[in-house]
Amino acid sequence: xxxxxxxxxxxxxxxxxxxxxxxxxxxxxxxxxxxxxxxxxxxxxxxxxxxxxxxxxxxxxxxxxxxxxxxxxxxxxxxxxxxxxxxxxxxxxxxxxxxxxxxxxxxxxxxxxxxxxxxxxxxxxxxxxxxxxxxxxxxxxxxxxxxxxxxxxxxxxxxxxxxxxxxxxxxxxxxxxxxxxxxxxxxxxxxxxxxxxxxxxxxxxxxxxxxxxxxxxxxxxxxxxxxxxxxxxx
Length: 234
Ligand SMILES: C[S@@+](CC[C@H](N)C(=O)[O-])C[C@H]1O[C@@H](n2cnc3c(N)ncnc32)[C@H](O)[C@@H]1O
Hints:
By secondary structure, this protein is α/β, with parallel strands linked by helices. The chain has one domain: Vaccinia Virus protein VP39 (Rossmann fold). Helices cover about 40% and strands about 20% of the residues. It has ten helices and eight strands. It has an eight-stranded mixed beta sheet with strand order 1-4-3-2-5-6-8-7, with helices on both faces. Strand 2, helix 3 and strand 3 form a beta-alpha-beta unit. It starts with 9 loop residues before the first strand and ends with a strand. The site of S-adenosylmethionine (SAM) has 19 residues, from helix 3.
């Protein structure tokens, strides 16, 4: 059987123009293997109810990193996939049929009213200028979604579990003994400013989401926000 054709990355910005941190990227890559990520993403997509979605749905994952969320979607049978990220080196790690875009998700260069599904899995908490950048990103998602489309969100959230997890992984002995804890601690250190900023403004985040989406589900547990929304169209 022939391997699927891999479309070339569409570069809307010059590589390296706006990012990236090689130390953070190295920790991100060793935090989980691609196989572990794909298993995690499939379980998450099932919890969101993706099993019941039309496999021809046009789906874009924003802040897609090295694209294992797209691989998970492909393994579930979805065939109209796109991904957006600012890191050329992470996008280059993806192998598959999805159309990738090198672009800033604060200013999404994608077609309006065109997508059935937009998903983000841990990207919004990287935004430096809050809440302006969040407003820009969510306005873009609202614009590119069809009126019948849906936005799925997973982001970190300050819950008792998250506070406990950081208290444990920040201890040097745990970092030495547990490689995954060390990778998490390095990522957290490198993104500390945006991460803490994100965790520290839950009300502002919710208000910003409410401006752009009718929120159908908003749950916070085990250190994560899981949200589903429909775009507010005029
Ligand atoms: C924590 S990673 C998540 C990657 C992927 N969703 C996953 O779960 O494996 C965050 C990603 O956001 C990307 N990123 C950060 N700021 C961005 C921006 N303004 N526009 C596009 N991508 C951005 C980074 O390059 C990184 O790949």
